[in-house]
Amino acid sequence: MRIMGIDPGLTRCGIAVIEGPKAGLPGSIGSPKPTFVAADVLRTHPNKDLEFRLAEMSAQLNEWVERYRPEILLVERVFAQHNVSTVMTTAQVAGLAMVAAASRGIPVGQHTPSEVKAAVTGYGDAPKEQVQHMVQRILALPKLSQPADAADALALAICHSWRQGSAVATDTSIQTTAQQRWAAAERAARRTGYRAGRGRMGKKSS
Fold it and tell me: Where is this region: Disordered (predicted)?
């Protein structure tokens, strides 16, 4: 199953594609780990007017979706109660990604940062460096994905692959089962929901 992950942002937008086993197929549990296809960071210049930046980002997103034809597209769901302008631009880019998928009949899903971190590292508050290292190990990459936005997009795609229960890492030093990863993600999501009510959520650069 080809999965595209998008870590939305207007100045830097992480985007990545992996191949994961087909969800729901007999014998899918215990199948090979997800494999790397592509990853990059899409950029727009902060000195340009918003409408031109959005147009540029839309063109780049559509190019990637058209080139790699994912079977599902995942967008990071970002919660924040401060820095409204940043949240707005992040939401706008997420919307562009959803439209790019919907216009081609590609389903869209969303996961929170805490869900993704817990699924990949086992810890919902893991730092970006730990996410990068785990993504490198899971996908057997020769080096860390740089910048971190690209690793975040890969982690998002990996998270969804494991949430579907369609992939279990064969390296038991990473994790033991997809279900255990997702159980950790669900616990992190519940903690995140509690923190959102206290205004302690993290911020994301546009």
Answer: 186-206
